[in-house]
Specification:
mainly alpha; 71% helix; 0% strand
C-alpha cells in the first residue's frame, strides 16, 4: 500500500495559503492604479452607471482583501470560505459577460496580469471547486482571545488602509474627470 506523500493537514494549509494569497494579490493589484481597474470594468460594458462602477470597484477590492486575509490567517475560516464562494459565484457570470461582450482583459489582477476574461472564468471555477473541497477538512483549533483579536485587528487595519487609499484615488479620478461618467 502506498502512503500519501503529503499529510492531509499540510495539503489543507497549502491550499488555504494559495487561495488566500490569490485574493489578497488580486485585491491589492486592482488598487495600484485604481484608474486602470476602473477602465477595465467600464470595458465590460455593464448596463450600470459609471459612478456605481466606482463604488463596486472599491467594494470588490476591500472585500477581496478581507476574504483573502481571513483565509490566509485561518480567521473564521468557514465564514472566509463562504465569502469566497459567494464572490466567486458572482464573478463567474461577470467574466462570462465580459467574454461575450469582448472585454480585452478580465481586470482580475489590475495591471499586474493581463489576460482574457474566459481564462478568469476557468480559474474562478477551479477556485470555487477547491474552496468547497476545503470545507470538510477545516479543523477548528482553539486560539486565545488575544490571537483572535490580533488577527481581526490586522484584517481591519489592512482593509481600512486599502479603503482609504482607494477613496483618495477615486476622489482624484473624479476631480480630474479621468473616466467618462455615463
Amino acid at each position: 500500500m502506498i502512503k500519501n506523500s503529503l499529510p492531509k493537514h499540510l495539503l489543507v494549509r497549502i491550499t488555504r495559503f494559495i487561495l488566500g494569497s490569490v485574493f489578497v494579490v488580486a485585491g491589492f493589484s486592482k488598487l495600484f492604479p485604481l484608474k486602470s481597474f476602473l477602465q477595465q470594468l467600464i470595458a465590460y460594458r455593464l448596463p450600470l452607471p459609471a459612478k456605481f462602477l466606482f463604488f463596486m470597484a472599491l467594494a470588490l477590492i476591500v472585500i477581496e482583501i478581507i476574504i483573502g486575509l481571513a483565509v490566509l490567517l485561518n480567521f473564521n475560516l468557514h465564514l472566509g470560505l463562504l465569502g469566497m464562494q459567494i464572490l466567486l459565484g458572482l464573478m463567474i457570470p461577470l467574466t462570462i459577460w465580459a467574454t461575450i461582450h469582448k472585454a480585452p482583459t478580465c481586470g482580475c489582477y489590475g495591471n499586474l496580469v493581463q489576460r482574457p476574461p474566459w481564462t478568469a472564468t476557468i480559474e474562478d471555477l477551479l477556485m470555487l471547486a477547491v474552496s468547497f473541497l476545503l470545507i470538510p477538512n477545516i479543523q477548528n483549533k482553539t486560539e486565545s482571545k488575544a490571537i483572535k483579536f490580533s488577527k481581526a485587528a490586522f484584517i481591519i487595519i489592512i482593509s481600512l488602509a486599502a479603503f482609504v487609499f482607494g477613496i483618495s484615488q477615486l476622489r482624484q479620478i473624479l476631480a480630474e474627470s479621468l473616466l467618462p461618467l455615463t
